[in-house]
Amino acid sequence: MRIALLGGTGDIGEGLALRWAYHTNHEVIIGSREPEKARAKAEEYETELDSRGVERKVTGFKNEMAADRADIVVLAVPPYHVADTVETIADKLDEGDVLVSPAVGIKRDDDGFHYHRPGAGSVTEIVADAAPEGVSVVGAFHNLAAARLADLDAELGIDTLLVADDEDAKETVRMLAEGIEGLRALDAGGIANAPEIEAVTPLLINVATNNEGLHDLGVRFQ
Amino acid sequence: MRIALLGGTGDIGEGLALRWAYHTNHEVIIGSREPEKARAKAEEYETELDSRGVERKVTGFKNEMAADRADIVVLAVPPYHVADTVETIADKLDEGDVLVSPAVGIKRDDDGFHYHRPGAGSVTEIVADAAPEGVSVVGAFHNLAAARLADLDAELGIDTLLVADDEDAKETVRMLAEGIEGLRALDAGGIANAPEIEAVTPLLINVATNNEGLHDLGVRFQ
After folding, report:
1. CA B190 → CA A213, B115, B162, distances in Å?
2. Within a 10 A sphere around the Cβ of A25, how many other Cβ atoms?
3. Based on the structure, what is the number of domains in chain B?
4. Is residue A220 within 8 angstroms of chain B, CB to CB?
5. Residue limits of the Pyrroline-5-carboxylate reductase catalytic N-terminal domain (chains A, B) (predicted)?
6. Which residues of A fall within a CB distance of 8 Å from B199?
7. What ipTM did this prediction achieve?
8. Largest CA distance in chain A
9. What is the CATH number of the domain that holds A47?
10. For the segment A119-176, what is each residue's pLDDT rounded down to a tens digit?
11. How far is residue B10 CA from its own chain's centroid?
12. Contact in structure between B99 and B135 (CB atoms under 8 Å)
């Protein structure tokens, strides 16, 4: 499949891009608001993969162009840019394309990190509200530590939870997720169930902050 | 130590009572609003332990009496009974006693299970607000599947997260938690960090509901 990572120059975008390029044969397209930045990062990822003996073409484009070329569009942008990013690319999406939402609202105070739940209910719901008709939305990859994902030497052995109201789209993303070695994708139901998943991300930071020897945590349901 | 499990006749109370009686030498006291029920359950737990070759005294009392006899009081009652339960036992608590809050507000709709966050911020915070001066509060054991805990043949291999504003009390509960074989206790910071922990419980139910072969789930941070 052709996967566009909008915000693919950022941390979670980098991790997903490298993992998909390394572990699968899906076409990986980096999107950014600045096309030069997208191209530069794509080259950087190619170099990283090349250093591991994997010759892979990774391309970089402006977000709209990246979305236009892809079947699966991952919104690896900060939560407050999600709605306008979907608006920007809306007319480049074809019926049957899938939008994937990994973003999480987090606020920090003196005690720790907390889930900043948006008025819509969740960031995934914001994407669903903004998505053009015929384009399905899947919430996924919320609880992955970006640095660990981007370190191809790091073993995963963790889960990602999927929410979607369209079972076919969910199955497509499940397949993409499980293409990443060590990542298990579990079904968490419909998009209405996204808040509890998004809230795990600040929790992971709190646990890592308060326990020596734990960092870049993920979660395993067992 | 002397541990009172108020609501110790209910599911999570039963699991903790059996595990502590089975794996540790702490004194286990069952509390209930109805003393006969507490005594009957305590006997039932003794019989279960006896069938496994463990001869243990488990006692049962009215909640107030149970709290009076204990150093650690676990509020294994439904979230809407937490505040009045603390009120009922308040004058039986001594300075230095520790209240432990495992309860979680959950609501169900057509999509699944959701965190029902109380106005105070979390159930743990409700307990902290209601606790008499000199009595510390620790949030713990929120994300344990009761049936799995109560089945002494079931392996755990999962984590419980602790929140408290009093580090000594947190350390006491950490020690109690890790006395249970297969349970790892992790520090998640202060009580203000409780909501994200409590929200994991409905998530565990959603994941178990939507994935064949997964049930009575716990979580492991790794």
Report:
1. 19, 20, 8
2. 10
3. 1
4. yes
5. 2-105
6. 115, 195-196, 199-200
7. 0.95
8. 48
9. 3.40.50.720
10. 999 999 999 999 999 999 999 999 999 999 999 999 999 999 999 999 999 999 999 9
11. 10
12. yes
